[in-house]
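Quick start: what a row looks like.
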Amino acid sequence: MESVRHYLVSTFGKGYSYTLRPPHEEGETLHVLVNGPWQGTVYLNPYTGVEQGRRGGDEGVVNFLFKLHSSLMLKATGKAILAWIALAYLILLISGLVLWWPKRWPPSLKIELRKGVLRGLFDTHRIGGAVLGLVIAVSVATGAYMAWRPIGQIITAMAGDKVVKPPKVKPVATTIVPPTLDEMVAHAQSQFPDDPVGYIQIPAKADQPIRIRMRLASDPHPNGRTAIYLHPQSGEILAVDRWDEIDIGARLNSYIYPLHTGELGGPLLEAVVFLAGLALGMLGVTGIWLWWRRRN
């Protein structure tokens, strides 16, 4: 890891922060998220440290779709807009369920396709929203929660918790020889020797701690939310924040993220989330079509 850090600093210079993601499976490269004047991902051989390639944050269809999905390409402003869009969707869902709610049960879930396009779209919109609306609502709400941090902060405040913040770094004697990154990671991992490292975060400034994210067995988050902070010069452990002991707003992220992606429930939930995403697009198209036809 120390050789990797030296390579990154010599390649990009000062003013950059790095997030190292060790391989999770055999044959994977070491991913390094680079944040600074140049932003992107560098892929390195985990055994030799030799660069295998790099991709800028704005390159490729996947990066474009991710930025569009997570922030509408508008950074913090887009995240706030997405939160309000999610609220609007929840209002539409509730009002739609009220309009659909049958007087007799069990309700008819038949989609009539033999009585014209308008009737077919109406049934598809009405029944699709009723059957998959709750799943879509969960996906939308969890996405908004991750995108806009004030939601978690509000929940923390309502619960009477204090937001857990990274510890401050105090200056040390300049004569101290700083430990290598490998030694720091090993020191951090000694706190949880049976659990793997999720991320290694190296800040751009010397007055910020190095953060090691651990994936504890009890943590449902695939990358782990337990954080160990180390002094960048002395390697001293400054704080250990277990995922199940931090403030409620941050702790919920361990469930929110895998619930949003479907990983929390395995392949079955991932398939349901995929279908819910298709259904969300279907509801939007059929809803606009029905509104336009009635308007004209």
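That is the whole record. Residues 2-59 form one domain. The first helix runs from residue 2 to 12.
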